[in-house]
Amino acid sequence: MRSCCRPLERCFGRRGGDGLLWHVDLKPHASGDFSIAVVQANSSLEDQSQVFTSPSTTYVGVYDGHGGPEASRFINNHLFPHLHKLASENGGLSANVIKKAFDATEEEFLHLVKRSWPAQPQIASVGSCCLVGAISNDMLYVANLGDSRAVLGRKVSDGRMNPVVAAERLSTDHNVAVEEVRKEVEALHPDDAHIVVSCRGVWRIKGIIQVSRSIGDIYLKKPEFNRDPLFQQFGFPVPLKRAVMTAEPSIQIRKLKPQDLFLIFASDGLWEQLSDEAAVEIVFKNPRAGIAKRLVRAALQEAAKKREMRYDDIKRIEKGIRRHFHDDITVIVMYLDHHQGSPNGRVKEHSTVDCTTSPVDIFSLNADEAEDPLHTVS
């Protein structure tokens, strides 16, 4: 697990023609193969992601930061070690183990905020969505805070020779743009008529943030931070009676079935451009190698189309400015072969422990690679 804390040590990704795109074409995990791709739009990459593989367990994490990269990077370094330790101590994974790991990560980030507060008060306004998947003993666990999303590609029978795939959403979007979530937040604050307000056509909690659950965003969870004059110089002086956000994850557990083909874990940057069904169809109809990169490019082509541009034009836009055209996008595709087996009828063996983590900053990584004549660039 220690390798998860060193984001660049075990990354074997490559950049493509887009200088802000990083990807891993295909690597093995205990139940099949996986592919990752990340494209940067913000001045600092706020998306972080990782895949931990061992012979018995696979962990997947997508962390979509906001207000800065500090929270998503913190989760990248702390959540999986907590999961691994707690699962070992409690005889395996469970909903309770996952919740405790989320709680421990939130608590540690709160301590970091308190230590950093005098010199960096704005860190109280930094947060991150947190989407985690875990596969162990043919059981799938999906835990989520915020609006990153996990979608399953499932084979269905339609009476014809050609198989058909259906998209099944496995996570809950904790975003007040969703009416059900908006009503949930309002029900928790019956004495606050302005807990959720529409700002220029976008619903936001206290007019500030769309997601209702996260790691971090301490100023919206601990009113004492919000009231501090030091923070009010940098943040939003919104009077709070109590916390208006939570770090309580939604957790779904299911036994994997023979018709379950693959999983897509992605930050909302992908889902802003592609529907669940469109993403699943792309994965189903295309080769495995580079499939995550293919999904990212499909999303970028949709973003370009909305602006009446070409994707080649977007590729030329530098980080920071590019955020006006699309968000940071992270995609992880996990193929599930444990039921189908390998060509000789045996399940693919994966006997090593590995952690693949996306870069902290893609632009800097690619700039370094360009100066290294020994580095192979695709």
Structural descriptors:
378 residues; alpha+beta; Phosphatase 2c, domain 1; 8-stranded antiparallel beta sheet; 10 helices; 28% helix; globular; manganese; hydrolase; metal-binding; PPM-type-like_dom_sf; metal ion binding
Number of helices: 10
Structural class: alpha+beta
The gross shape turns out to be globular
Give me the CATH architecture, please.
4-Layer Sandwich
- Look at the structure and name the CATH superfamily: PPM-type phosphatase domain
SSE topology string: EEEEEHHEEEEEHEEEHHEEHHHHEEH
- Classify the helix fraction into a percent range: 25-40%
InterPro entries: PP2C, PP2C_BS, PPM-type-like_dom_sf, PPM-type_phosphatase-like_dom
Cofactor: Mg(2+); Mn(2+)
Protein name: protein-serine/threonine phosphatase
Keywords: Hydrolase, Magnesium, Manganese, Metal-binding, Protein phosphatase
